[in-house]
Amino acid sequence: MAASSRSQVLSLYRLLMKESSKFPSYNYRTYALRRVRDAFKENKHVEDSKTVEVLLNKARDNLAVLQRQVSIGQMYATQKIVVEEHRGKKTI
Hints:
This protein is mainly α. It has helices at residues 3-20, 26-42, 49-73.
């Protein structure tokens, strides 16, 4: 993979991870983070430039979907679930 492709892939990976971590709901957030991680690991060894370009375009489309879903999710209040850390409260 060319250096420019590698930097594009890493940049897109960071953007997807950052956007996925913005989900207010724990379940959606962990699912999105896991899916992004798994998809990039699965295609880690792809060398063909055409295939890389197709995968990059698909990832960009998914980034746009994530951004829309995050903004929709932020419109509605959610309660934290037990596995999430409650900020400001100490449990004994």
